[in-house]
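Hey everyone, long-time lurker, first post.

I ran two proteins through the pipeline my lab uses and got sequence/structure pairs for each. Pasting them in order. The first:
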Amino acid sequence: MTSTPPGAISLSSRIERWPIAGTFTISRGTKTEAVVVVAEVSQGGLTGCGECVPYPRYAETPEATLQAIQAMQAPLAGGMDRIALQARMPAGAARNALDCALADLEAKRAGRRIWNLLGRPAPEPRTTAYTISLGTPEAMAEATAKAAHRQLLKIKLGGDGDGARIAAVRKAAPRSELIVDANEAWTEDNLAANLAACADAGVTLIEQPLPAGKDEALGRIRRPVAVCADESVHDRGSLAGLRGRYDAVNIKLDKTGGLTEALAMADAARALGFEIMIGCMVATSLAMAPAMLIAQAARFVDLDGPLLLAKDRDHGLRYKGSLVYPPDAALWG
């Protein structure tokens, strides 16, 4: 084991498992727990923390993510900072945890909040979506009815039968704003019908209807509802190719590789005319906290991960109805 020079940044990391309240189902399957990886960087008695969610869709596993983080011990001890990290690691979950941990440590060393250090506005409470899992129209209507008091609902869809699902959901929540997430489950054959069904239900936004890399039809069809890229967009390098197909982009820190790239990506996306959505994986408040900086300029905020857990971590974000509040310094930043 390599010793850390005095005064250098030391690193620790671990895999954590957080039970989900019930189950969480999307077009790719069902899970009952959130598996996250936490990175902690320490220096001078101060510790910064970051959390990520490895995503099998991008060939990430908790074990490989943990190894990738641990491989950065020597560069960190050698003085690698958050900016140098961007070139040292590829975008993805592992870099996200380290990037956010380093940002947290910067704030603690300076005795200031991270948004002040970054020259960003202080975050204010934002209305977050609440997710309704994929199921039968009847099951989704039942779940929606229990959440119909919320201002913004995100509805997971899955392909065939989605017209009936979204109609049932709208009937159960006549006053809520609806956004839907197809998770790449639609096809060119059912695209027009599903778009029309969403338009009829008054849906505001549709996330990633077609598979990434097979979404050319979005540029050829009239889009009666705004369409948002999720799996088709990762960092700034993927933005330019989306014009003409998408109206918005879903920024997730696990895709961008952390807050540093996410902030730059949000600025670039707005400059290209895209609406911004800030999204999340199912995780604890530690993963949501950095995303609150992106949420300030986002048209759509989807940071409900902790609400889907049986229990959040200590000092978690405060949720009041559909409002999510900025993190306390005891949690992050």
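...and the second, right after it:
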Amino acid sequence: MVTLPLFPLSIVVFPGEELKLHIFEPRYRQLVHDCIKDNLTFGIPPYFEEKSLKYGTELRLMEISKTYPDGKLDIQAKGIGYFVIDDFFRIMHGKLYPGGNIQRMMWTGNADVVYSTRIVSLIADLYSTMKIKNIQIPIAKDYRTYHLAHKIGLNLEQELQLLTIPDEVDRQIFIKDHLEHLLPIVKDAENLRKRAELNGHFQNIIPPDV
């Protein structure tokens, strides 16, 4: 069991993901300075809809990008692991910020190329349907699921569920199933939009050969 400084936020961060944060509260400015001084990692447990803090991602502070005259900070951190919280402390002893006793969990990164190829194809179809052009579609052999998690329409609960899946192949299956469910819904919505736009216009409809 490990005691870790905690920074609850209404986001899900994945192991391997890089994160930029603006730190303005005094308690979390203290957390950042303690991480530097004592070479500590810290955790971000997702907190939303007042649900209890059970899981989180361990991060390592990579750099302080900017320090403002009033003490606020811009930082860059990187997710390095996933954990389960055994005991949550609203305030760690002698500190301003929260903390907790955590257990580090396995989070593997070996992907299946067949699933990778299928997922890339689904994303390309989804982005084409939605006319999304400013997000680069990943190359199948290069990406991992944490590269995609915030770009495929998962809600916070689904992202948290993805975080708690320890094996990369199982995470690929989760994403593949999500996209296969989402894509027909998006296509139906797009077809509805097109039909609505045709209202009042002359339509060139080819009759069936009966």
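Reply from user beta_strand_b:
Welcome! Quick read of the second one: The chain has two domains: 2-105, 113-197. The beta strands are 2-5, 18-23, 42-44, 55-67, 73-89, 99-105.
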